[in-house]
Each structure stands twice: as C-alpha cells, then as structure tokens.
Amino acid sequence: MKYFFLLIISLLILSCGKQKTVKLPEINYSKIRDVTDVSAAYLFYNETKKDSIELNRKNLISTTNWLINVDKRLTLKQVIPQIQFLQDKKANAGHKNENSKNYFTCNDISKKNLGFLDFTNVKYKLLKNPNKHKTIIINSLNDILIINNNNLIKTTYKENFEAILKANFNTNDVIFLQFYNQLSFQDYITFKSLILYKLGLKQHISDNEFII
C-alpha cells in the first residue's frame, strides 16, 4: 500500500469525536521519498496541555515498514520514551520481518512532498555520553559543543559548524551525538538531516544517541 493514500486517510484521525492532526517536521532535502508496505503511528501535540503527549499506534503491523509521524512542536523529552517503546514493541513482536525499517515522516520542502528519515538502527539512551573523545553536544541549533579528545570547541550551526567538524575529525572517526532533552523535534530533525544529507561528511555517526 502506498504511503500517500495512507497519509490522506490517517492524518485525519477522529478521537473522542475530535479531529487531530500532526504538524510534521520540515527538512530541506531527503534521499528517501517513497516507502511502500507501511503502517503508521502518530505522536500528537496538545496545545492546551503542552507537557502532555498522545501516542496512537492502533494500526501498526509488526512485519511492515513503520512510519512514525511526530508533531514537530514536541520535545525530545516527550518523544524519545515513546520511540523507545515502539522500537521495543517491534523488536519483541511474535511475527517479524528483518528487512522492515522505521522512518520518521517529514515534509521535504525542496520537493514540496513527503520525505523520510531512517532511524531503524538508532539506539536512544537517556543519559550522558560517557565517551568524551568524539562527541557533538546539541543544546540548540545555535549552541553546539564539539568535544575532540577532551578538547572543547564551541561553535554555531549557522556559522562554521561544517568547517570545524572537518578540521577536528578524521574520516574513520566514530562520532557520538548528544541532544538536550528540551530540543524540539523539529530542531532534532533539522540537525539530523544536516549531518546525514547536507554536509555529506564521511565520518561515521554512531547508532547510539544520548538524550540528557
């Protein structure tokens, strides 16, 4: 089943007689623009109770590719425990498809269409990264700390982030990402798409991501 048909049907979810929508995060570019054989889950933002979060996972099928639709206004503190729950649910399902993947759904504004960010292998950890050698700490998009062999360098996303990365990391380095838990999901996706797509860096980003 094509995702676009699913999107039309599923983004208009009726719950307790009220229509709910998800404001998807926006990205400037995505390599993945079409996913088939899917089922979807939704993480809703509540404008009247901003500290709350609602997960709708009724239509998830363990053997399919999962499209996780997260409202961009939610924080990582709200989102990540729900993502961990979904990852565990799929990993422990009775029926599995080892080739199925998990994606975050985004709006690819460069194509005016949907784009998808693969997070199948990401392992979220709700603690500080114990590795202080090769770590990027993202407090906000304008407050990024780079640690290389215990040397702390402060930079900003808008100015010289790419140049500093290339100057301080080798192509065979494993780099860890650590995110502030109050970061919005939009900012998280912006940073991830920057690292994975726009910069085209050859450094390997660890599958372990730390949320503090």
Description:
The protein has 4 helices and 14 strands. It has 212 residues and is α/β, with parallel strands linked by helices. The protein has 2 domains: 3-120, no CATH class; 125-211, 2-Layer Sandwich (Nucleotidyltransferase, domain 5), CATH 3.30.420. The chain is globular.
The first-to-last residue Cα distance is 38 Å
Order of helices and strands, N to C? HEEEEEEHEEEEEEHEHE
Count of discrete alpha- or pi-helical segments spanning 4 or more residues: 4
Structural class assignment: alpha/beta
Mean pLDDT: 88
The gyration radius over C-alpha positions equals: 18 Å
Note poorly predicted spans: 1-17
Helix content: 10-25%
The outline comes out as globular
Largest sheet: 6 strands, mixed
Q: Give the oligomeric state.
A: single chain
Q: How many beta strands in the DSSP annotation?
A: 14
